[in-house]
Amino acid sequence: MKKLSMEELERLSVQEFKETQKSPLILVLDNVRSLNNVGSAFRTGDAFRVEKIYLCGITGTPPHRDIQKTALGSTESVEWEYCSSTLEALTRLKAEGVRCCALEQVENSTPLQQFQPQKGSKYALIFGNEVFGVEEEVLKACDEVLEIPQLGTKHSLNISVTLGIAVWDLMVKMELVSSR
Q1: Where are the domains of the chain?
Q2: What is the fold of 6-173?
Q3: Are 117 and 170 contacting, i.e. CB atoms less than 8 angstroms apart?
Q4: What pLDDT, in 10s, does the model give residues 74-121?
Q5: DSSP for 119-178?
Q6: H or E segment at 52?
Q7: Which of 136, 9, 19, 141 lies closest to 77 in space, CA to CA?
Q8: What are the CA-CA distances from residue 24 to residues 38, 120, 130, 178 (Å)?
Q9: What is the pTM of this model?
Q10: What radius of gyration, in Å, describes the C-alpha atoms of the chain?
């Protein structure tokens, strides 16, 4: 066993990334205050070729050194757009036939492991503020609310962790990742 070199990893250039087909996933950050969480969203978005990231409300936007610290340049590869309102972004996405799924702890949520994405559908995953979560009116506008079951005392995961788990789970279920 040996670590793979950069050449062996066959990394895409930014231009190749922009020209390649994207996964049918869109990330929506609803008033995320930590610029490190924003950078992590970009880095995860790049890793899984998400179609786009919507940065909404108070969510910070590139260029910013604290975003870049965790994004490692992925703000250049992943398409993004700022919307003053998360509801505005969801309204547009739903009009385009995108299924909107918030990640939140609510009554009657669907445990992530039980959620089965529909073949051929495009999904927007919505992640909320570190303190207040996804806004109530945004939750009501979603097609589904997914929850990652937790066993500890905090019942809270960092947005970047939640985002990574959710994106990976959907990529696997949609058979979009290869096993080499």
Answers
A1: 6-173
A2: Alpha/beta knot (3.40.1280)
A3: yes
A4: 999 999 999 999 999 999 999 999 999 999 999 999 999 999 999 999
A5: TT--EEEEE-BTTTBS-HHHHHH-SEEEE----SSS----HHHHHHHHHHHHHHHTT-S-
A6: strand 50-56
A7: 19
A8: 20, 8, 25, 16
A9: 0.95
A10: 16
